[in-house]
Amino acid sequence: MLKSTPRRAMGAGTWCYLALALLALSLASAIEPALAHGIGGKDAAFVAATKEADILPFMYLGAKHMFTGYDHLLFLLGVIFFLYRMRDIAIYVTLFSIGHSITLLAGVLMEINVSAYLIDAIIGLSVVYKAFDNLNGFKTVFGVQPNNKLAVAGFGLIHGFGLATKLQALNLNENGLVTNMIGFNIGVELGQIFALSIILALMVLWRKTSSFNRLAAATNVLIMTAGFMLMEYQLAGYFLGFPVI
Questions:
Q1: pLDDT by residue (tens digit) across 12-34?
Q2: In angstroms, what CA-CA distances link 218 with 15, 126, 128, 222?
Q3: Which of 62, 83, 167, 228 has CB 3.0 to 4.6 Å from 184, enough for a Cys bridge?
Q4: 225 falls within a domain
Q5: What's the pTM value of the predicted model, to 2 decimals?
Q6: Which structural domain, as residue segments, surrounds residue 23?
C-alpha cells in the first residue's frame, strides 16, 4: 500500500504534464491548425448575414474564438504557471481581460486598423516573454525583473487588437454593432474562464506531484518555442504576403 501511492501520484503528474505539454506542442507540430482560430465558414456567413442586434450568437462566437485561440491560451498558461493563490490568479487574469476588452471594442467600434500579421507576431512575443520570465530569464540575463502586472495588462491590449483584427476582416453590419460586440466580448470572457478552469485544474493536480519541479522548466521551454514559431510565421506572412489566418 505504501508503494502504490507514489506510483499513482507519478502517473497523475505525468498525465497532467502531457496534457499541458500537448497544448504547447500543438503549435510546434502543426502551426497552421493551431493558428486557425479566426472566424470563418458558417460563422463568418452568419456574421455577414446579421442585420441587427443578435447578442446570444455573438456570445457563442466569442466563446468559441477564445476557446480555440491557442496563442491566447498559451499566454494565459504562462501567466498562471507559477501562481498558486487564487487571489493572484484573479488579479492577473482581470488585468489581461480589461486590456483585451478595451482594444477589442475600440478596434472594431472606432475602426482602428492595424496589421493582423504584426499584432499576431507581438502576441507570439507575449508568449515568449512570459515563458522566459518563468525561466527567471530577465534576472539571469539582464539583472532586472519587469513589472509583470503591467506586462500582462499591456499584452492584454495587444491580444484585444488580435481579436479585433479577426472581426474587422468580416462584413460587420452597423445595425446593432455595439450590442453584438459587447456580446462577443462577453463570450470571449466566458470562453476564457472555461478554458482557464481546465488548465488550472490540470496545474493544481500536476503541482501535487514530484514531476512538476522536474518538468516545469522543460514545459516553459516548449511554450517559449511555440511563441517563437508564432512570431516567425506571422512575420513571414507580413514580409512575404502569406494569407492571414
A1: 556 666 666 655 555 444 444 44
A2: 15, 18, 14, 6
A3: 62
A4: yes
A5: 0.85
A6: 4-240
